[in-house]
Amino acid sequence: MPTEDVASSCAVAVRGLGKHFGANEVLSDIDFEVRSGTTVCILGPSGSGKSTLLRCINFLEKPDRGEIFLCGDRVGFANGRVMKEKHLSPTRVRMGMVFQHFNLWPHLTVLGNIMESPIHVLRRPRHECQAQALQLLEKVGLAHKKDVFPQTLSGGQKQRVAIARALAMNPEVLLFDEPTSALDPEIVGEVLAVMKQLSQDGMTMIVVTHEMAFAREAADEIIFMDAGRIVEIAPPEKFFLDPRTDRARQFLQRYVR
């Protein structure tokens, strides 16, 4: 368990996190830290627990044990147990989440999708939310799509809107769960370009991805997982060129060309 000083020195600190689905232990003794303003990429084979870990960090899945600190605050737990669902909203508001399949509201325009949560969750004035939404659409290169509905967008455009929607909540950290896995290869680059710019701008990001080139270029640190455990944590240049473990070397031989 980290001391309060250690937990407060980073944007996210995870200690002793564990998760079971029935008799199956999918996460075991997960420990890592994410410094403010850095990008951490979580890599590993399918079924290694990457997405479950991300969903536990913002309590879309409830951990069975462990602790999570966000900017020095122990979040999501009370009296040693995960909080009830109705009490988890303040924690989730502080962590933006971008999913594989966009999850845009089909009955709202692009602009409406971005404004909805700031208006109804944060209770911010409509005019303020609209001004911010327009700025974010400009940032992701979709200002010209503000009045259209999601069904008219390509997959890459939908994902860029989803990123803008997450940013509209002014999160302290952005979580990405394989954000390009549902996209056609031809349009993956437009989403990765937005993510690289966010990384360069100093947004704190935790990214579960199979995009090795992105991880190598954008990450400040790589977390490699296998069978529900963290096998290796290293800077990208060290991980990709000289991994410490045999398991990481096997993974890279298969996934990196």
Summarize the structure.
It is built from 10 helices and 12 strands. It has 257 residues and is of the alpha/beta class.
Walkthrough of the structure:
The protein is an alpha/beta fold and 257 residues long. It is 36% helix and 25% strand. The protein is built from ten helices and twelve strands. Helix 4 packs parallel to helix 6, helix 5 crosses helix 6 (155-167) and helix 6 runs parallel beside helix 7 (188-200). The longest helix has 14 residues, at 126-139. The protein starts with a helix and ends with a helix.
Descriptive keywords:
single chain, alpha/beta, 6-stranded mixed beta sheet, 10 helices, 25% strand
Order of helices and strands: HEEEHEEEEHEHHHEHEHEEHH
Q: State the major sheet.
A: 6 strands, mixed
β-strand percent reads: 15-25%
List how many beta strands DSSP finds: 12
Fraction in helix: 25-40%
Placed side by side, the strands forming the largest sheet appear as 8-9-10-3-11-12
What is the molecular shape? Answer: globular
Mean pLDDT: 94
Secondary structure: elements and pairs:
Elements: H1 4-8, E1 12-21, E2 24-34, E3 39-43, H2 50-57, E4 65-70, E5 73-74, E6 77-78, E7 81-82, H3 89-93, E8 95-98, H4 110-120, H5 126-139, H6 155-167, E9 173-177, H7 188-200, E10 205-208, H8 212-218, E11 221-226, E12 229-234, H9 236-241, H10 246-255
Parallel strand pairs: 3-10, 3-11, 8-9, 9-10
Antiparallel strand pairs: 1-2, 1-4, 4-5, 6-7, 11-12
